Amino acid sequence: MEVHVYDWCSFLPLNVLYEKLDRPTVIKPSIYKLLEPKLELVFFDVGDGDSVLITTPDGNRLLVDGGGVEENRYDTARSILLPSFLKMGIRRLDQVLVTHAHADHCFGIINLLECFPVKKAYVTQRKKKPELLINYEKRVLQKNVVPLRLHSFPENPLYDLNENNHSVVLKVSYGSFSVLLTGDIEKEVEDSLLAYGDHLNATVLKVAHHGSRTSSTRPFLELVDARTAIVSSSARNMHGHPHQEVLSRLASGMAPCSTFVTGKRGALTVISDGNSYQVKAGKRTLQSSGDLWYGRPRPCLFYPS
Fold first, then answer.
1. What is the average pLDDT score of the chain?
2. Which among 88, 7, 5 has a CA at the least distance from the CA of 40?
């Protein structure tokens, strides 16, 4: 089982984490002697935001982003994530990670730290930190969560004006199966990533920026060559995500690619034994999460099956 964390803004792999801010730890492949070990990823239905729970074959749980709404008008942590965790029998998270400082990724994690046990949290060493990242790191310290510092490389000033392009990207590999989580990176970063060649190949792709036309260029999609694409986006949203040209590029790639949208299918669960994999759609319990963006926010509608 390998988890690779990359800082695509500097285009260098981050294979060193700083535990408790002073002791380096190197991520290494591990072999887990379990009965039928499985890798599981749950892509929660959090409206036009992102939240992915990764459970490794040895039971380690990492939450990447937590959804959220501008000005924290809707608490995705208490309304969506917490009920889902309790339904899944989860009582604690091992790590949390915020990919970048936008409300639809960050607020859910900040709120979750208030109401749910978390052992460790990844923090960035960016020199110019947006207010949301500062608030996230303050909450980590207030709750006595152990910080894991992502090793920092020189920042690229070309992306200072676009927070999306500061997104942390993760590739999770288990046997011949892999998932690429792309945050909200846009065309400029995708173009630079082409230099990584086959390292970007993945079985499942979490489509960048909720399926926006600002991302998912054809050369990037062809290099990733995913068999399944997952778009984290509400069914009805003011941005029109996912954009039709992105869906068309996904459907017309070199190999057939099945696309799932959380706002239409609910929370999506991807399970792999390291070779084959399956995608399970969530069970509808209340209303569609598209209603989060029109009128008053409603409680969570789709839970993992």
1. 78
2. 88
C-alpha 100/C-alpha 120 separation (Å) is 17
Q: Are the beta carbons of 94 and 122 closer than 8 angstroms?
A: no
234-266 burial, b at 16+ Cβ within 10 Å, e below that, comes to bbbbeeebbbeebbebbeebeeebebbbbbbbb
Residue 179 three-state SS? strand
- Tokens 């846009």 belong to which residue? 186
The domain locations on the chain are: 2-27+35-283
Share of the chain above pLDDT 70, in %: 75
Q: Are 63 and 7 in contact (CB under 8 A)?
A: no
Q: 210 in helix, strand or coil?
A: helix
The Cα–Cα gap between 111 and 115 comes to 7
Query: Helix, strand, or coil here: 176?
Result: coil
Residue that is written with structure tokens 């996230």 in the block: 136
Spatial separation of the C-alpha atoms in residues 49 and 218, rounded to whole Å: 23
Residue 21 has pLDDT above 90, yes or no: no
Between CA 28 and CA 21 the distance in angstroms is 19
Q: Is the pLDDT of residue 177 over 80?
A: yes
Distance CA 149, CA 140 (A): 12
Overall size of the chain counted in residues: 305
Strand partners, 280: 269
φ, ψ of residue 3 to 5 degrees: the values are: -120, 115
Residue 157: asked if its preceding bond is cis (omega within 30°), the reply is: no
Give the mean model confidence (pLDDT) for residues 84-88: 92
The domain 2-27+35-283 having CATH identifier 3.10.180.10: the answer here is: no
Read off the pLDDT of residues 234-291 as tens digits, 9 standing for 90 and up. 777 666 668 788 888 888 876 678 889 988 888 999 999 999 999 998 754 333 333 3
